[in-house]
Amino acid sequence: MTATQSRLxxxxxxxxxxxxxxxxxxxxxxxxEDLLRHYPRRYGSPGELTPIGALASxxxxxxxxxxxxxxxxxxxxxxxxxxxxVVTDGADTLQLTFFAKRPGVLRMHxxxxxxxxxGLFTGTVGDYRGRRQLTHPDYLIVGLDAADExxxxxxxxxxxxxxxxxxxxxxxxxxRSVRTVLDPLTESDVLDxxxxxxxxxxxxxxxxxxxxxxxxxxxxxxxQRGRDRLRFEEALxxxxxxxxxxxxxxxxxxxxxxxxxxxxxxxxDARLPFPLTGSQRDVGETIAADLARSTPMLRxxxxxxxxxxxxxxxxxxxxxxxxxxxxxxxAPTEVLAAQHLRTLEQLMGxxxxxxxxGGADRATRLTLLTGSQGSKARxxxxxxxxxxxxxxxxxxxxxxxxxxxxxxxxxxxVDEQHRFGxxxxxxxxxxxxxxxxxxxxxxxxxxxxxxxxxxxxxETSLLTEKPAHRADVATHVVPADNDAWLARAWARVREEVDxxxxxxxxxxxxxxDDDAVHDxxxxxxxxxxxxxxxxxxxxxxxxxxxxxxxxxxxxLASVAQTAALLAExxxxxxxxxxxMHGRLSAEDKDAAMAAFAGGDAPVLVSTTVIEVGVDxxxxxxxxxxxxxxxxxxxxxxxxxxxxxxxxPSVCLLVSRAPEGTAARDRLAALASTTDGFVLAEKDLELxxxxxxxxxxxxxxxxxxxxxxxxRDAAVIDDARAIARAIVAEDPSLDRNPALASAIDTWLGxxxxxxxxxx
Length: 758
Ligand code: ADP
Ligand code: MG
Known about the structure:
Elements: H1 3-9, H2 12-16, H3 18-25, H4 32-36, E1 42-44, E2 48-49, E3 60-74, E4 81-88, E5 93-100, H5 103-112, E6 118-128, E7 131-135, E8 138-141, H6 149-156, E9 160-162, H7 171-182, H8 196-202, H9 207-215, H10 220-250, H11 264-271, H12 278-291, E10 298-303, H13 309-322, E11 326-331, H14 334-348, E12 365-369, H15 375-387, E13 390-396, H16 398-401, E14 409-415, H17 422-431, E15 437-442, H18 448-454, E16 459-463, E17 473-479, H19 483-498, E18 502-506, H20 520-523, H21 545-548, H22 559-568, E19 577-580, H23 586-598, E20 603-606, E21 619-624, H24 632-639, E22 649-655, H25 662-672, H26 676-686, H27 713-729, H28 737-756
Helix pairs in contact: 9-10, 10-27, 10-28, 11-13, 12-13, 25-26
Magnesium ion (MG) binds near residues 415 and 613.
């Protein structure tokens, strides 16, 4: 480490003293750089210089005045300490008040506010027992903070940085600390991650200049300029990290799996019961070309629910089998893995019966491998994978981490988990010198800007077209407190059942003991991770308590209670009602799905375990209880379980959320469109932007601070082009050490693996 670098990495305790550093540590700020990267949240306007006699309560003002008295005292009644000062402009007096837990904290003010000294005091005018006062004013003392009155006036006319603060560390103290560490720094202390050439070309300030601009602006234009440059820097660091990953991946060698005109894939095409959509065909060609290359494919396939991703995956897998390799299809849950197996079996028919009676000449074998299999079945499946007899192995994501052996794994398809972790990818890479090609599929529409930021090293394809004859799903919001509407809803369920169809009823909880209200932060993470809720567990929910405060808060509907309730409803007399949730054993889940699909129990009360991928063509109705508890993309996923055949379908969102709340707006958005991409954009609008990248991204020392993926698309685009050029010229970043170290220290290990999830 160079001497200059050590300036920024110095611990705050060393520069500011243990007490101040201790407070800042509560905000997660440990080093000089941490503090300098703690940017103001906004800027207060400097107060007009006002005579004390003209001060009006509530106004934000600055007064020039002389200190008459200043004294710290303990407050017996309330505990804690208080500093009271009286200042005067010669005509009138004004009181200044500071509070603290201990008198010691206030001594610093007391020592500066010496009677007789002159200063500028900025704050909002309050009233205390008829006297005007400023509480915790910002101030500048002439002779201490400023050389003379002119300088003091200039200082006071600057925009006032307002920092993200904590009770123990008010914004003005952060500001002072920033000045203490920032003022003595020189250009050579601060290495700039943005290469000088790029900076010059764009007329960007240096990092140190930008720090001064945002922390100590002389005027509004300053902080804007500084902030723009820091924002660009974030984008550049991020995109360079991604460009480097991409380059590293492209340097790896995969086994090319060229397509054949006379293989299983061609046989499948010949027996498909439907023509491929144009989208399926186009994406299929792209993937076929990827697979034929000797660099490993890493492609994200986005397609709304029902767009027909499975068949695209199957064609890719068969191309690999045709080329002598094996493919693995990974589902997020065992239920889905089992379903995929059935679907593939059906699509392939005799093509899946290799070595069996009735198999086609060129058949291969489909094998299911899950954790809940009996040991005998599992041993057989493992043997088929290891020997290469199984051309396609279907399982859950655990399949790879468990180190299942393949004879020649050529392609891994990951279904419904676009955040497929870096661990799994690395595990795959580590397995052999030739990493398999990878296709990641998701129904979650990822806005382009998000894809670019988070998934910058993946290629993306889109299934834009839906198979023809797909009926739309009519969606309605039903107020939970309207008994007549509810009765009508259950009667409608009965009509569907009588017509031979299936109905899902979705609840946020399993039973009354199930505390389904999880951390709102997790649950708000729906765009980036709808599957967070779709593992073998039953979903995190939004805590909309704040929004529905005032409304009576009945407990959330649970699967157990709802099933019991429906059994009693006269409308549903004689209808068998099934139950489904994450706590059931794998066999019970299978049995429940089978009874539902087969029509024995045509109403299925379930948690969100059915959220992703479950495919029952006769399901034409879904009733979602306490719908306001689910995020937009989760509701969209759920709704995707109906309207899968050509039968018109309906989705009822039963909700207690009052009109005009954000929760109600989400439901209205759902009701207005079934276009997942429109909804994803809507979701971004309705949510705090920090949530877009997942909760990992908010707060913390390593997060994106200024960059917003939606707003800053142009900046990200620009940075990406530059990042790729930099990495192309200097792959190891040896010639851009500051950029390299920004990636290492600023993004950090965790952050980079976060980026990798794709
Ligand atoms: P998803 O993209 O949500 O995974 P699936 O692959 O499960 O969608 O496909 C949904 C349904 O559409 C399945 O029943 C599938 O057989 C059917 N399907 C797929 N492609 C077509 C097509 N080109 N024409 C008609 N139906 C299709
Ligand atoms: Mg699917």
